[in-house]
Amino acid sequence: MEWEVVIGLETHTQLQTNTKIFSGAAVKYGAEPNTQACEVSIALPGVLPVLNKEAVNCAIKFGLAINAEIAPRSVFARKNYFYPDLPKGYQISQFELPVVGKGAVTIQVPAVGKHPAYEKVVNITRAHLEEDAGKSVHGAVEGMSGIDLNRAGTPLLEIVTEPDMRSAAEAVAYAKKLHELVQWIGICDGNMQEGSFRCDVNVSVRKKGSDKLGTRREIKNLNSFKFMTQAIEYETRWQIETLEDGGTIHQATVLFNPDTGETRAMRSKEEANDYRYFPDPDLLPLEITEADKARVQAQMPELPEAMKARFEAQFGLTSYDAASLTASRELANYFVATVDNGAEAKPAANWVMGAISAKLNAEEKPLADSPVSSEQLASLLKRIADNTISNNAAKQVFEAMWNGEGEVDAIIEAKGLKQVSDTGAIEAIIDEVLAANAVMVEEFKAGKEKAFNALVGQAMKASKGKANPAQVNELLKKKLTT
Amino acid sequence: MINSSLTNSSLTQLSQMLANKTISSVELTQTFLNRIDALNPNINAYIALDRDKSLAQAKAADARIAAGNAEPLTGIPIAQKDIFCAKGWQTTCGSKMLANFIAPYDAHVITQFDNAGAVNLGKTNMDEFAMGSSNETSYFGGVKNPWDFDRVPGGSSGGSAAAVAARLCAAATGTDTGGSIRQPASLCGFTGLKPTYGVVSRYGMIAFASSLDQAGPMAKSAQDCALMMNVMAGFDERDSTSLNRTKEDYTRELAKPLHGLKIGLPKEYFAEGLDASVATVIEAAIAEYKKLGAEIVEISLPNTGLSIPVYYVLAPAEASSNLSRYDGVRYGHRAAEYTDLMDMYNKSRAEGFGAEVKRRILIGTYVLSAGYYDAYYLKAQQIRRLIAQDFVEAFKQCDVIMGPAAPSTAFKAGEKVDDPVAMYLQDIYTISTNLAGLPGMSVPAGFSNGLPVGLQIIGNYFDEARMLNVAHQYQQVTDWHMQMPELTMPKDVA
Predict the structure, then answer these.
(1) CATH topology (fold) of B2-257+468-482
(2) In contact, B274 and B407? CB cutoff 8 Å
(3) Nearest to A419 by CA among A468, A474, A386
């Protein structure tokens, strides 16, 4: 029997604001426990929430980025439950009327084995603003649990998809795309280790061809793409095996254990809370006007899709290259800066996606830490373009620059990599090569095209790689055919 | 002798005495503290007193007066309902849950009085978390009505009410969620005003039902209330429901004559359930207004009867959520022994809350529960809008609405404690205005069997200055508001 997995994601993105969503307390990560817990964070008697406008701007930005409906009027609701790190005994969230409505994200699912890469649209159901809870700290005090309320009240945008994904690869491609997008528009720092971007994944399986959804289990709090792949794959296998063994799936919340690679139910939904949502009487409905949207729109950076289209049109890049360069805003900016510094677009694209990306990957460095700046890369590409050095020599220069050996021209000088473009000098070399390889010359004249390439190789070798290959080709051809 | 006249003086008179140095704020404060020492053990109007703090504020006020930058309330001792957080003060909200809570910050109202140079005389007793109409739900014991110690002062601002009536403060603050300023004002015979929702910031005022709670003044006269309003009202960015309006002077219309004033009398406020002797007093007051040139219009508020059921869905719903923060984790009462987290919650809350609070948490939790929400909470919200619409229609025909503030005079302690519904009916005439967000006042209008009766004045949104004018003009031709209960004082405290 063939099974199909159905996946939907709920992602909590921590918004990059200076202060909490409903108070003026700071939101820096890693501060001493409870040093960022003001009277509102602690939920002292009598305190009241005031909405942080910056958090609202972040939500509007996201709505604009996914081309979603932005609600002219949305409502904050209280989600009531008791937990020690939830100081008010309720979380302020949005329930019936979220700030961002239906939208969509286009994802690129990479090739796997013989399955080629493809594009897919993932529909966004909604995105709503809410506050984060604090943290329970176990083991800090002997025999007691500690409560750290620094995180309580941190602004979150919870982004919910339709159950549109059909494989772990699609789910991860979506998560990566979203991860990049929220950083691109500057609403989230994307730091998954610090919990700035956390995914809950709803997984269910059904027989292929069925249009009914199976019972889902929700994998909570995945904070790496690797774990997400593992967790979904394990969960999918587990659900299929359970059903094939005649069992039933019960709706549940599960946790992924990275050590065992397994998912395990933490609580079943039957015993879940009735959250008794109702509109928070301490907060007025959030109203967003067309003018508000226009104001935020004016602050929006060019979005990846628009930039990709522009790269194709303006620079004649292929769709693939343009997509690769716009995979992150940093990379795109680096590419644009390289071009702005005088490099030609196509070689710039090749070098950014090639040498630069390879080096960064190998050294596990972010682009921001690249020892070769966009300006330096542009100087290098200009020396290729003006025939000062060959492509091969450029690779040596790049390597040297990466290792901090200096600027482009100085390295070319020091290493003697300057290309020979003097026709007389090249002609002299070619004459020597032709004289020493009479057999090859005969073969070429007899119609063996391959011999020509061998002769070019010999000439390049004789010039110690410094001869301009185009000139060698041209002069050799002239000499052999006249 | 001077003391008795002092404690019975209006805020304006006290202000003048302070300004011309007839008396210092320290002396005035000490006078009230002495009177409290003598009378409070019987009346139980105060939960917390802190002489040193009060006198230090009085001293600072004297310095300010000497420096010549006094405001009208500088140096005047004000009693604060124990629902307002005041930095360094025990702030209990009448509950065992917060009996050990020292507020680390000031409520907006407290800050406003501090800025005005007023003296915080102490924290007054109240029904637990403002849930009650007799002050009998207080963890700190009931409060006696100064007119008859066997009777209740009303609630929930019972301590402030008794303190004003017994002249244990120059004026006091209260809060009104369903009538908690106006009903005790009626039962204790003084002037109390619940402003339009959003006029006084709720920041630092311990929440009962957020969409209904509103703080207001409790004082001897309309003029005193106006001076109090000048301090209490104003925009506060820390309260999202606080209204950003131009600061107004609430005394500005006091002197206006009432010729042509249209008074609406809702027939529903004079129907079954109103004590006949109370009705007689109210009718006499209306007659007085006619003499002042007012016209009487009969109006109808057809949904009045639904106000109590609607209130007892919405207020407990909000309260059940508002009171969730009292979990024994960060502050407040925590059970001495418990086995695990759930046990700690259960025991701390079971021990920390009294019966009425628990009743309302249960009702509120029930009406918000899945499957009941639409039938109760949503339906109640719909009716709430109808009730507000009743007033919109009514104010097309009149300038102010008048009627009784409470259906009866002060009842005996213990009389209604076992009958919540009878207790809830105390607020039948006041609750609608909270649901509509309208301002309402209670003004002393006479006596029935020696017990005070309050006339309620309901105004349109933001018509506080007009209402104070309407009350003040009445107080120019009557002296009900000047009546004081006879209290037996030890000899050395006049």
Answers:
(1) Amidase signature (AS) enzymes (3.90.1300)
(2) yes
(3) A468
- The answer to whether the Cβ–Cβ distance between B318 and A80 falls below 8 Å is no
Would residue B291 show up in a list of annotated catalytic residues for this protein? Answer: no
CB contact under 8 A, A45 and B370: no
Selecting from A44, A50, A90 the residue whose C-beta is nearest the C-beta of B105 gives A44
Which one, of A229, A59, A147, lies nearest residue B341 by Cα? A147
- Percent of the residues in chain B that have a pLDDT greater than 90, as a whole number: 95
Is residue B211 very low, low, confident or very high in pLDDT (cuts 50, 70, 90)? very high
Residue A7, judged by CB atoms within 10 A of its CB (0-12, 13-18, 19+), counts as buried
Q: So where are chain A's domains?
A: 3-292, 302-415, 423-481
Distance from C-alpha of B330 to C-alpha of A47, rounded to nearest angstrom: 14
> Does the pLDDT at position A475 exceed 70?
yes
Minimum Cα–Cα distance from A43: chain B residue: B325
CA-to-CA distance for B157 and B407, rounded, in angstroms? 18
Using pLDDT thresholds of 50, 70 and 90, give the confidence band for residue A471. confident
pLDDT digits (tens, 9 = 90+) for A237-246: 999 999 999 9
pTM: 0.91
Q: Where are the domains of chain B?
A: 2-257+468-482, 326-380
CA diameter of chain A: 99
Q: Find the catalytic residue in B180, B242, B348, B408.
A: B180
Residues B80 and B34 sit within 8 Å (Cβ to Cβ): no
**Tens digit of each residue's pLDDT (9 = 90 or more) over B145-156:** 999 999 999 999
Smallest CA–CA separation between B205 and chain A, in Å? 5
Fold of the CATH domain A423-481: Arc Repressor Mutant, subunit A (1.10.10)
B10, B24, B81, B220: the active-site residue:
B81
Residue with tokens 């000899």, as numbered in its chain: B491
How many Å apart are CA B258 and CA B421, to the nearest integer? 38
- Residue B156 annotated among the catalytic residues of the structure: yes
A80 Cβ under 8 Å from any chain B Cβ: yes
d(CA A191, CA A179): 9
A87 interfacial to chain B (CB closer than 8 Å): yes
Among candidates B104, B240, B323 on the partner chain, residue whose Cβ is nearest the Cβ of A48:
B240
Residue A395 in tokens: 């690779």
A125-150: per-residue pLDDT in tens? 999 999 999 999 988 888 888 999 99
Do residues A256 and A230 lie in contact, with contact meaning Cβ atoms separated by under 8 Å? yes
Here the ipTM equals: 0.96
Q: Tell me, yes or no, if A45 comes closer than 8 A to chain B by beta carbon.
A: yes
Q: Supply the mean pLDDT for chain B.
A: 96
Which residues pair with residue A148 across a beta bridge? A135
Chain B residues lying within 8 Å of A53, measured CB to CB: none
Cα–Cα nearest to B325, from A80, A480, A64, A199: A80
Measure in Å the smallest separation between the Cα of B123 and chain A Cα atoms: 16
3-class secondary structure, B212:
coil
